[in-house]
Amino acid sequence: MSMMDEYTPLNPCSTKRLLSPNVISLISIGSTIGTGLFFLISSILIKGPLVSILSFTYISFISLIILLITKELSCLKPDNGSLCQFQSYLLSRSIGLANNLIYWLSWCFTLSLELSILYSLLNSYLSVPYYTSIITIWFLLTLINLLPVNYFGLFEVFFSLFKLLFLFSWLFITTLALFGLNPHWEPIGFSNWFANWPTSFLGPLSLSNLLSGLIATSFTFQSIESIALTSGELQNPSPQNFNKIIKLILFRIIVFYLISLFILTLLVPYNDPDLSSLSSPFLIALKNSYYQTSSLLSLFNFIIFTTILSAANSNIYFGSRSLIALVESSNIPHSSHILKTVNGVPYISILLTSFIGLSTILLQSDSLISIFNFLLSTCASAGLLMWCLLLFSYIRFCHKINHSNWLYFASWFSAINIIFILLTNGIDSFSFSSYLTPFLFFTFWGVLHFFLNESSWLIPIDSIHFI
Predict the structure, then answer these.
(1) 97, 330 in Cβ contact below 8 A?
(2) Looking at residue 39, what DSSP letter applies?
(3) Which residue numbers delimit the Amino acid permease/ SLC12A domain (predicted)?
(4) Residue 115 sits in which domain range?
């Protein structure tokens, strides 16, 4: 085996372990419960209640597998952004670099996506200049990320209070509305499902409709794997603490994702004209529940704005930590400057990540809808690609230790399904952006393979070392 095949990371970035398991679970949820859940879910609801529920249940199962294998691999190597290092020492260095470069850029693009939504929310109530509002929000979020990580964690806890307040209040109010405890005292129940049976429940049912809904659904779960980006700053990276984090995230998925989606399908018909706008389906559901007072809607709109701020804040954090892991595993000349820290804060990686996110949205400010759709497609594909390679990394890990459990076979099942989703991403309306991420990955992989002078496309099992 060539010496270039060996995974020899740089000296690790000197971050500090200042985050508790509770804070890390809130940071992960802070990123997960954001634009995907509050806005992108409209592109799932238009598929009809049946497809929406099937898609969410399907991706929830895959997310469970991702969480479990992420926990196992993170316990093995709880380093900075360890999620972005698994592929380098279990698959190959070129695969790790290619995937992690795309993954890091996807966090920058996701930040752009969040900034576009924040501007849209602000602009619906205030006539604010585009550049001024975007740059102001970006500056504040970047400043928060430049604080010591424990203070960043406190901000995320604060943001999460608003998020939990909104979701629990929304669930309570809408549940009452379903039973007739609304301003009109009119039970809604399953009336929208049976309004024009079976079309009102099945929606525009077709195979392409189901498949196109999966890529959108997967974006709402993006960053579920992010606990492995925080492992380098977890106070005590023990299996017990990782188990605690996993349980907290799973509970929130069940409550905030599956239950919320079920209620949304009851209150928002798949052909509701408001779903075609950038308005949140959560607010549309309140309107359809006869809660149309401007003060209530304004309050909930403000809370949604705060939750998107939390998600954008987490995007910078996760992006900077994935960049750290990328650099640590690259050995690219002079790249070690990115690992510099002040009081444990990797300020260069933070500034670089946030700046690219800002420049992406500023350079394409003429068409907010078009940039939203482009970023959505590329970011969702990048997340799925990371999931897929994470699954294959775990499979190789099982081969290395000669151990096959149910999670090993579930990983094969999930990986094959993710590949199928990526291949059928453009089945509904073909566009180059639908396959841009896989195209870039294979291009980067091929170029890096020859540039690094690797003797094989995958590291031989016997040459894998857990370092």
Answers:
(1) yes
(2) I
(3) 24-428
(4) 3-463
